[in-house]
Amino acid sequence: MSGRWEPIVMQVWDTVVTPCDCCGQVVARRQWVVDVDGEERRFCGPDCEQLYRSYVVPARAAETATG
Amino acid sequence: MTTAVDAQQPLDPVLLTIVNNSFVNICREMGVTMTRTAFSPIFNEGLDFSCVLFDRELNMIGQAEFCPAQLAASIFIVRWTVEELGIDSFEPGDVVLHNDPYRGGAHIPEHSVIRPVFYDGELWGFVANVGHLAEIGGKAVGSFAADATEVFQEGLRIPPVKLVKGDQNVMDVWRLIMANHRTPRNTWGDLNAQVGSLRVAEKRLVELLDRYGPELLTRASKELMDYSERWMRAEISAIPDGTYEFSDRMEDDGVVREPVNLKVRVTVDGDRLIVDWTGTDRQVRGPINATYGVTAGAVYNAIFHVTESNIPKNSGAYRPIDVIAPPGTVVNVQYPGPSVGGNTETHPKLADMVIGALGQVLPDKVAAAEGATCCNFLFGGTHPKTGEYFANYHLEGGGWGAKSYDDGNDATIVKNGNCRNTPVEVFETRFPLITAEYSLIEDSGGAGRMRGGLGTRRVMRIAEGAEITVSALLDRTQPEFKPWGLEQGGSGGNAAILVKRAGESEFRTFPEAFGTASASKFTNIRLVAGDEVLLDSPGGGGYGDPRERDRDAVRRDVAEGLVSPQAAREIYGLADSLGQGPRNRLEELALGARSSRMEVQR
Asked: What are the DSSP E strand ranges found in chain A?
């Protein structure tokens, strides 16, 4: 894992929550930020990064390949 | 006095069973407190609430037989709330309230109250109650705006705030809520019932801590979760590895009259499951979007339907299951999208889809589709006898899908609800609506070797002197959106909501009578004394070829008015009986009972 934890700072007027780029769950106080193929991704934690790399990326690639 | 155990040895299974049952019983006692003290029928009759226990690490350690959608959502609600507020912000006697659908909630009417439990000055865990308040403001009476396009129209949205501090009500917060609900006295009673149930749970948990001590109880909780995880992994391992897909549609979103497409891909990989909703439509304008909590809850609900029922229901059982719900889609609504119908209409379809996908390899463990709509019917007005404003959220049971070994349940609330039908007597006592008919709908259960459960018909007449504003949010009302059958089983019957104005002789659709955009989803229609509303719930899908159904079972169905003689002949193949040719004794009884029943109905 190559990510880093970053805090999520919410102001009182911030009523929008941050979803995980892999599973879609809310990331409440801190997010696991990772560079994946040159793009910054924000996850709940290292487990979701692992799921993203092992399942989501191959699944999307297979979908693209099959049209 | 506490129990002494060897720290090196696994805990005695008997002790673990006692602890697990104690957690379940605490939740059940919370439920009894709710039903006895709440003001609204949705709680003391409908049971639309759930009670849950959590440890200090925010793992769910206990629940009981409540609403599966709320039970699953509570996992996220409690964890995210405590993380957002910070665990150190909780003091003894505090109660945090929130109903934010974007923070784990199932939909905005569901209000969660969360209380920390301290023992010897140390935080040990949390107790929580998730309940559907019947009226929370917004554009529609009953807070189910079927044509809402953003959350602000759905009611008062409350982020996590302290409703009680140190066992003292924070009255500024209470007043703010009361000012935004149409029936504030009910809100006061219902929220206090929820808060009261937390006090009961705290008392019982402290008694348990007195008995076993905090270290042992924590250890028992962890071992129970590990046990649940092992059991669930073993159940998943028994499913053949592979990827299984399923698709379904909803008829419209209440705002745009176009079908909404849902898609799931279930991957079984050894002892883990990945349930991926990628490919589902982007979130829609109307309120059938589901929150993450709803979608995850539908997945867990479905998995529990196809695995051993005795697995202790705690966070351990959920560990082997990954849910992927892309943000901004119908299965993971983002701010400010509306979502009130996602919990009632979308959830049961999502659960059925996971079951349908796994049915490809577990045909004997799955059921055909259920009605999959709560037939949400909302109404409010001033009661002519008391002069007081009333509002109510009513949901209706429909037919469940048949399984390979049994018929589907009749008139049962959707599988995500586990709620009860409100009795006619309570309905008429509390509200100025007279029930003209409440019956099972003949032939609404999908035909099959095992028959789908039947939907119901309820006809309600507005009482003398009353004027009522009604709203509705249903699905499955169009012929091409019927609950599907399995293995050659037939589809279940459709849902419907119709109106007959006073003095008219025929029921009509709401678009015909009032020009609403959708026949199944509309808001704030004014009805007057003598008007009648007909509410049909759908039937469940059938399982297997109807011509293979046991012949005596078909005859009994005819006798009881569940299947018509015509369907018995034409669909079930009972061609030589019930009106044609020689009859046996059971057929004679069937026809006799049937004609008596019809006589009574007239």
From this structure: 4-7, 18-19, 26-27, 30-36, 39-43
Q: Does B58 touch chain A (CB under 8 A)?
A: no
Best of B75, B292, B295, B318 to mutate (most A CBs within 10 Å, chain A) = B292
Residue with tokens 């669909």: B571
Q: Are B19 and B217 in contact (CB under 8 A)?
A: yes
Q: How many domains does chain A have?
A: 1
Q: In this structure, is the dihedral angle defined by the CA atoms of residues B426, B148, B48 and A15, taken in order, positive or negative?
A: negative
User: Mean pLDDT for chain B?
Assistant: 94
pLDDT value, residue B597: 47
**Using the beta-carbon criterion (under 8 Å), do B102 and A28 form an inter-chain contact?**
no
Q: In this predicted model, what pLDDT tens digit does every residue of B122-148 receive, in sequence order?
A: 999 999 999 999 999 999 999 999 999
Q: Which amino acid is at B268?
A: V
Contacts of A19 (CB under 8 A, 6+ apart): A25, A26, A27, B292, B327, B332, B334
Report d(CA B500, CA B534) in Å as an integer: 8
| CA dihedral of residues B295, B296, B298, B303 (deg, nearest 10) | 150
> What are B301-323's pLDDT values in tens digits?
999 999 999 999 999 999 999 99
CB under 8 Å to B182, separation ≥6 — which residues?
Answer: B135, B137, B141, B380, B389, B391
User: What's the rounded Cα separation, in Å, for the pair B566 and B550?
Assistant: 17
The residue among B144, B146, B123 whose CA lies nearest residue B135 is: B144
Report chain B's terminal Cα–Cα distance, integer Å.
67
pLDDT digits (tens, 9 = 90+) for B33-44: 999 999 999 999
Q: Averaged over B17-41, what is the pLDDT?
A: 97
Interface of B with A in 490-549 (CB under 8 A): none
Number of residues in chain B: 602
Tell me the nearest-neighbour CA distance from A43 into chain B, angstroms.
12
ipTM comes to 0.95
Helix (H, G, I), strand (E, B) or coil at A56: helix
Q: pLDDT digit string (tens) for B499-557?
A: 999 999 999 999 999 999 889 999 999 999 999 999 999 999 999 999 999 999 999 99
Q: How far is B94 from chain A (nearest CA, A)?
A: 21
Instruction: Give the CA angle between residues B506, B507, B508 to the nearest 5°.
Output: 115
Q: According to the model, what pLDDT value does residue B47 have?
A: 93
Instruction: Provide the pairing of β-strand B376-382 with B389-394.
Output: antiparallel
Which domain, by its residues, includes A18? 4-66
Strands B496-500 and B456-462 turn out to be unpaired
Q: Which of A26, A42, A63 to mutate to test the interface with B (most CBs of B within 10 A)?
A: A26
